[in-house]
Amino acid sequence: MLIRTPQDWELPESAATPESLYHLSKRRDFLKALGVGGAALAAREALAATAGFPSKVNADYRDPALKPTAYEHITSYNNFYEFGTDKAEPKVLANRGWTTEPWTVEVTGLVNNPLKLDVNEVVKKMGGAEQRVYRLRCVEAWSMVVPWDGFQLSKLIALADPKSEAKFVTFTTFLDKKSSPGQRQGNLPYPYIEGLRLDEAMNELSFIATGIYGKPIPHQNGAPLRLVVPWKYGFKCIKSIVKIELTDKQPLNTWQVLQAREYGFYANVNPQVDHPRWTQASERVIGGGLGRQKTLMFNGYEQQVASLYTGMDLRKNY
Ligand SMILES: Nc1nc2c(c(=O)[nH]1)N[C@H]1C(S)=C(S)[C@@H](COP(=O)(O)O)O[C@H]1N2
Ligand SMILES: [Mo]
Questions:
Q1: The CATH number of the domain where 277 resides is what?
Q2: Into how many domains does the chain fold?
Q3: 270: Cβ below 6 Å to ligand 1?
C-alpha cells in the first residue's frame, strides 16, 4: 500500500519492471542484516488456530484454470503493516513473540445473539474448515492464487442473527503495541479497520480464512482468522480479527481514513478505473517471473457479485 508522499521503502510497487528481482535481493539483504538464514526462519514460523484440520476441498471453488501460488511466496511476500511495511518483514516480525493462541473473537452490535468465543470454538460451530482456491489482487497491482482454509462468513453472521436495522459489517484487528512494531511506530492509524455492506458480507464468496494449503494460517498471513473477499482489492481482507460488528452506518476503513482520494470503501477490483498514480488494467504475477496478466472485472468473480452493484457508478464508488 502506498501513501501520497512515498518514503524510499514505499517506492511504487507499480513501477514494476525488474521488481520481483528487486524484492528478492532486498529481502536477502534484510534477512542478512538480521543474521537469519532461510531454514532457521521457516522453522520459527508460528502457526495458529488448529481446529478444523484436515480441511475438506470444496470443488465448487476450485477453478482448474487457476494455478495456486507457491506456499513459500504466499507466506513470505506480505502486507501486514502491524509488522512492517516491507513485504519481507511480516514473516520475521510477526514471529517474534506475538502469540495468537488463545484468541477470542466477538460478533456484536445490531444482532440478537451476540457471540464471544475462542477461535477454535468458532471453527467447530462452523462445522470445520473447507478449502477454496481464490485469486488475490492487491491494489498495488500484483496478484497471487491462494488455497484458503476456513468457512463462509455468512454462516457466522447468521449465527449471530442480525437485526433488521443492520446494514453494514465492521471488522477490527487486534491492538497490542507490545507485540506490534507497526502500531508502536504509528505507520497507520490503528487498530486496522475494514467494512462491508451486509449483503456483500452475506455473499457466498465472502470467507473467513483460518488456514492456507491445508495448514493453520501463519502469523504473517493474519493468524488466527482473517477476511477474504476475492473480488475486492487485498486491503479489504483484514487480518487477525478480534471484532465483527453489525452497524447501520457505513464504516470508515483504515486506508480511506489515510487517503480517501486513492482508497475507497468499495475497493472492487476494476481494470477500467485506475488508481490515481498507476494503472489497474494489469497485474504482476507473484512467483511468475516478470510476467504480467490482464486484470479481470471483479477479479474474475463478476458472475457471483456484479448484481450487488446494479445501478451504481463504479467510478464514484471506487
Ligand atoms: N490488519 C491488517 N490487515 C491487512 C493488512 C494490514 O496491513 N493490516 N494489509 C492488507 C493488504 S494491503 C493486503 S494486499 C493483504 C495481504 O494479505 P497476504 O499478506 O496474506 O497476502 O492483507 C490485507 N490485510
Ligand atoms: Mo494490498
A1: 3.90.420.10
A2: 1
A3: no
